[in-house]
Amino acid sequence: MKHKVRLKDMAKPAEVLCPLAVTDLDPVPGYEERPFKQVKPEWKEKYDLSLDGFSALALTPPATKEAEEELVNKFLRGLEKLFTKENNWTFMQPTALSTDYCVRCNTCNEACPVYVESGRQDIYRPNYRSELLRKIYQRYFTTEGRLLGSFVGADVELNWRTIYRLAELTYRCTICRRCAATCPVGVDNGLMNRELRKLFSQELGIASEGVHKGGTMRHLQTGSSTGMTPAAFLDTIEFIEDDIEERIGRRIKIPIDKKGADILLIHNAGEFVSWPENPAAFAILLDAAGIDWTLSSESMGYEGVNYGTWYDDFQFARVAVAQVQAAKKLGVRRIVVGECGHATKALVEIADRVCVGDLAIPREGCLPLLEQIVTSGAIKFDPSKNNFPITLHDPCNMVRLMGIVSPQRNVLKAITPPGCFREMPNAGVMNYCCGGGSGFAVMNSMNFPEWRDSVASRMKAKQVLEAFSDCLDPSIPKYYCAPCSNCKGAARDALMEYYGFRDKYNIIYGGLVELMVNAMVDIEKPFVSWEDEF
Amino acid sequence: MGETFSWLIAGPFMYLAVIIFVAVTLKKVVTIASMPRHLRWDLYPIAHEGPAGSVFQKVEFWKQPRAVHLAYELAEMAEEIFLLKRTFLYNRKMWNFSYPMHAGFYLIIGWIGLVKFGALLELIVGLKVSGASTVFWAQALNAATILAGAAGLVLGLFGCLGLLWMRYTDEDLKDFSSPVTFLNLYLLIALFGVGLVAWLVEDPSFVLARGYVASLYVFKPAVLPPIMTFEALLLGIFLIYLPFSRMLHFAAKYFFYHNIMWDDEPLVAGGSLDKTIGGYLHFKAEWSAPHLKSGGSWLEQATTNPAKPKEEGK
Ligand code: SF4
Ligand code: SF4
């Protein structure tokens, strides 16, 4: 069922404005929906779940009228700052243009997987959040809004409900920017969503715990968003060396803190914790290709993530600067970011205009390097070792937002037998997000994961089923290749656990490098296996 | 009285409207253009990179010359401007009306150009642009003017009526349409509609229009018949209103594409972008969340670690 929720309704008292149920959602072929879990009564009492019955932020409503007034005032002060160059030189131009020139044509709506898969619920429209921002901005900061009010659309009341619902709503968008790619004018609702998150974080101190407290703050405190300290990192590397020895029958010494190396490789540290076979595969490949590389054990130097990308310019800048400083200290020639989409986008591209002066050291993503390894002939690959159906996920950050489309395909073509690799629908720059974008993959508070897996990842689930539609039989092992740590997180939680693809269809997931090592002639035992839990 | 009114509208008011339109549009464009350079926020494919695609696909991309092919950028912009490519691809229903409306505008702009050109010819060379002329290209200019004007008015009116119908009947569009959205459409409908009536009733060969433009050139504004006076009033109002409205997206769109989605200029140490951004780092940011340093410069903020002092204090 579609719940009609007008923009004006955001301010209205209602237990839940858009009470989402699984029956509202667009069906996934062959999947039997399980009803959402009942919300715990103590949550209902304490937290605001009045947007859609879910909470990513665990916000408690203000206790007094004064507290509400303070909240409203702070929000307005923050909103004003988005439009001043001193406070927001980083994104003022796109924000101001996106505020003024949307023609309200709704073209962006159908591009959004969250909106479409939710059964086209009004509140998840890409332009819903932006329109609320515009209406509030108009009402409080423009002459026509003050004078003409609802005639020009400045008709949304600003109270704690509006603010809290809007805050929650900013964590219902993956910032995949698929909407922006379809907007005829160029308005970027993904950016507007990020600007709103930024306002909440930088002015009101409101942000998702997984992204802020357990993310960038922990990153800045311990050296990694996983909480892995430099000492723990060194232990992990030893463990990976043991693991490699067990898998390939010889020990590889992973270079750490090698001064003046050609490449400093920075992984998403989540790999070391959850998918150590990925950094292991990198080590095997780079070693076999004779590349002069190193990892850094410096605090921040072994962690590629930058969760500030999704919500806070200052946290973004702090992390990016520290990462580049770690590379500087080692005196490497260039940084290569491992299989992590947002880390690549953040460090290679966005940070380009933060890391000025002597911090402007060359940085690139790993996919072109992997392609070079394949085409250089430094390693011999036997494609027949990857003789199983494979489909490829295009991480939004690397593909739509950086244009890295062909290297991963060229690698796959070189290391798989003909007919095994199949594209999923909308492959390339118009891909769909895995559902883990914008921090969703690391946001696990309250009942948010249920929303994420069931709504945000739903389109990806359908795409994967479509790509493998001719070989869904579980007797055929299949590989969902996602060269991005966050996308793998989403694959693990949503595709494998929530939709049960592993048990039902025998689909496993993993990165690109694992497939490369699996195809190496020199390595006897399969590196990719359907027996182990990856 | 009627004549004075007509003269006031067709003369001083029209001059004023054109001046306001040009001045406010320029001011807005300058304001947008002088906003600070933002962080990179690319969206691919970037047109000027051409078929080779993103530079990030290459190893050590910074060593390669930057691919900026103006022709590809212009081709993409032309498709967007003249065919409304994205609306065609992603919102066909709206394109069915939005395209005729935009085509109507382009034709009318072309028509204005032809009328101005004809007026100049008449003024300078003394050649009469008319279907009865014995000079071939005066005849051709006359035919082109009539065709552009009539087609522009019909298409524009059709497109605007269709868009109005969509906004009234499409439940999803309704909530995103404030009264001013409807006002904009009504204004355009009036502009195209009255123009069409004026053409049919008062000026089927645009002789009066051409004469009127010529009179504006020599600062002796002509008196117009009633419907044309009304059309001039509407046009003046439209010109004054346009740069204040979201219809200025025709100018903003350039910045959206060229300066935001397709701004892939890399920062080179010591280069001008490096210096510009280096300057921004001295801005004082006033955000007040607990993890930020109140009153600190951007540079101080970026090099402060809010998690560290706590650790040391333990
Ligand atoms: S953001 Fe773009 S596509 Fe969406 S409603 Fe606005 S103008 Fe249309
Ligand atoms: S950025 Fe992605 S998730 Fe967010 S509104 Fe746009 S299409 Fe939807």
UniProtKB/TrEMBL annotation, chain A:
Superkingdom assignment: Bacteria
Pfam families referenced in this protein's UniProt entry, alphabetically: CCG, Fer4_8
InterPro entries given in the database record: 4Fe4S_Fe-S-bd, 4Fe4S_Fe_S_CS, Cys_rich_dom, Helical_ferredxn
Entry annotated with the keyword Transferase: no
The entry's keywords: 4Fe-4S, Electron transport, Iron, Iron-sulfur, Metal-binding, Transport
Protein name: (Fe-S)-binding protein
Signal sequence, start to end: none
Lineage: Bacteria, Bacillati, Bacillota, Negativicutes, Acetonemataceae
UniProt KW Iron keyword: yes
Matching SUPFAM superfamilies: alpha-helical ferredoxin (SSF46548)
Domain 4Fe-4S ferredoxin-type: 92-122
From TrEMBL, chain B:
Subcellular location: Cell membrane
Main subcellular location of this protein, as a coarse class: membrane
Keywords associated with the record: Cell membrane, Membrane, Oxidoreductase, Transmembrane, Transmembrane helix
Source taxon at top rank: Bacteria
NarG-like domain span: 115-253
Record-annotated membrane-spanning stretches: 6-26, 103-125, 145-168, 180-201, 221-244
UniProt key word Membrane: yes
InterPro entries reported for this sequence: NarG-like_domain (IPR023234), NarG-like_sf (IPR036197)
Membrane topology qualifier: Multi-pass membrane protein
Coiled coil: none
The protein's name in its UniProt record: Respiratory nitrate reductase subunit gamma
Organism of derivation: Anaeroselena agilis
